[in-house]
Design goal:
alpha/beta, 317 residues, six-stranded parallel β-sheet, three-stranded mixed β-sheet, binds uridine-diphosphate-N-acetylglucosamine
Length: 317
């Protein structure tokens, strides 16, 4: 079974370590900014008789998407369309899509189930994920050969337990966990906590953090489903743990894992942040046989192993 995996080219520069994670998959150096090269790449890779595509190549920074929306719509949506067209041209109809909990917008109820309304997204990034899901639904309606699994990620964190593969954001991290890790390792002085007056147990925002290896395993389960089940259509699954942790919970867990003090200060809320968001992940367990196994202790320990081994990220290699 051959799976074509798309990734952004900057994350493709560490193929040896990626092979550690998912050995049996094919990787392609698809760079979605150059959409035309995708067609060439997909055509080239069909020499390997591709059976399924797992599509990861997307831009994902909420703030950046507000500054450069056209690049987000181009990369995340046009790029995906080109891949889908190239797949159909080559008779490949099984697709695993990297979606996000952002498609739910501000949760109307908790935990968030897959039938929670989607589409009330506040950022261009969120809209690209929502619009693409709508495209995928229309595609499945139009042609019964398509089988699509859309995985709605909650807050992926952590690193591979080898300490060789981890998160290495360009510039200042937008997300909490890499920021905490960089403060712990001494690359940044202080974590700014956005808001201390949310209606949560300690006033800071609550999220459903999921270990990146659990997330990767969710993709393998989705690919297995597509390989084994004859059923076609559009399926969406939440990938989360079902548990929410506050920003302060994460800071304290990281201090314990790293044995370092994390300096922090409270600042104003970040625009667009919701108080609390966590998943009901039971559908993925029932339908895919997948359940997150790793807790925040492991998320923090693995992040710390990666960050302390690679204080400047991949640049140290
Ligand atoms: C965002 C996106 C989500 C995406 C995820 C990972 C939205 C609404 N959310 O999630 O779709 O999957 O990024 O790319 O589009 N925080 C701080 N200080 C910081 C950074 C974060 O206090 O320096 C707080 C935030 O206010 C929040 C929590 O930490 O309460 C998590 O933030 P973050 O890691 O950025 O993820 P989300 O905003 O939840």
């Amino acid at each position: 079974m051959n799976v074509l995996v798309t990734e952004k080219i900057d994350t493709m520069q560490h193929k040896t370590s990626q092979k550690l994670l998912i050995t049996e998959l094919f990787f392609t150096e698809t760079y979605l900014q150059k959409v035309f090269s995708i067609e060439q790449n997909v055509a080239e890779y069909t020499k390997h008789k591709i059976d399924m595509v797992a599509h990861f190549a997307a831009l994902k920074a909420v703030g950046e998407s507000c500054r450069i929306p056209l690049q987000y719509y181009h990369n995340n949506m046009t790029g995906t369309n080109v891949i889908l067209e190239a797949m159909a041209d080559n008779n490949v109809f099984k697709f695993v899509y990297s979606s996000s909990a952002t498609v739910y917008g501000e949760p109307k109820f908790l935990p968030v189930t897959e039938d929670h309304p989607t589409g009330n997204c506040t950022s261009p990034y969120g809209k690209t994920k929502y619009f693409t899901e709508e495209i995928l639904k229309d595609l499945c309606k139009s042609d019964k050969r398509w089988a699509v699994v859309s995985l709605r990620y909650f807050n992926p964190v952590g690193a591979h337990s080898s300490g060789c593969i981890g998160e290495d954001p360009n510039g200042e991290p937008n997300n909490l966990m890499p920021f905490i890790a960089q403060v712990a390792v001494g690359r940044r002085d202080i974590l700014r906590i956005y808001g201390s007056d949310f209606p949560t147990s300690d006033g800071t925002g609550v999220r459903d953090y999921i270990h990146i290896v659990d997330l990767a395993e969710g993709h393998l389960k989705a690919l297995e489903k597509l390989r084994n089940v004859a059923e076609t259509g559009f399926f969406a699954y939440n990938l989360g743990t079902g548990r929410g942790y506050s920003v302060l919970d994460m800071v304290h867990a990281f201090e314990k894992a790293s044995n370092r003090k994390i300096n922090f200060e409270f600042t104003d809320r970040r625009s667009g942040d919701v108080a609390t968001c966590y998943a009901d992940a039971s559908l993925a367990e029932i339908s895919l046989g997948w359940k997150a196994k790793r807790g925040i202790k492991e998320m923090c320990e693995d992040t710390w192993r990666w960050q302390s081994n690679n204080p400047s990220g991949y640049a140290t290699k």
